[in-house]
Design goal:
alpha+beta; four-stranded mixed beta sheet; 123 residues
Length: 123
């Protein structure tokens, strides 16, 4: 079973590298990078020109931890997306480039993106 997991991870990373060839964040339009583990989801706004993270949100931080009890992973991803959009506004960001990290645009990744759009981010 370990070989299957390794192959799946390698395929995802290959997809991510392929996308990253074309997608880069700037100060005006940072990259919204998403990482999804089996239990948590993480999102960052990255300015690749400076190599700087402008804002971030994840399901492991205290602000979200209290809200996630009894909720499904998809609902938690929506909370994280909304929180990231709120923090992006605070950082003066309204437009982003979406980087799904090699994951399918489906389920939790889609829920996070939709919540970020609802929060006012344009991509």
């Amino acid at each position: 079973m370990g070989a299957v997991i390794t192959k799946t991870r390698e395929q995802r990373l290959a997809r991510h590298r392929r996308v990253r060839k074309k997608v880069a964040g700037t100060a005006a339009r940072p990259r919204l990078a998403v990482f999804r583990s089996s239990t948590h989801i993480y999102a960052q706004l990255i300015n690749d020109a400076e190599g700087r993270t402008m804002a971030s949100a994840s399901s492991v931080e205290g602000e979200v931890r209290g809200q996630r009890t009894g909720k499904k992973k998809k609902e938690v991803a929506e909370i994280v997306g909304g929180l990231l959009a709120e923090r992006a506004k605070g950082a003066g960001v309204s437009q982003v480039v979406f980087d799904r990290g090699g994951f399918k645009y489906h389920g939790r990744v889609q829920a996070l993106a939709d919540a970020a759009r609802k929060g006012g981010l344009v991509f």
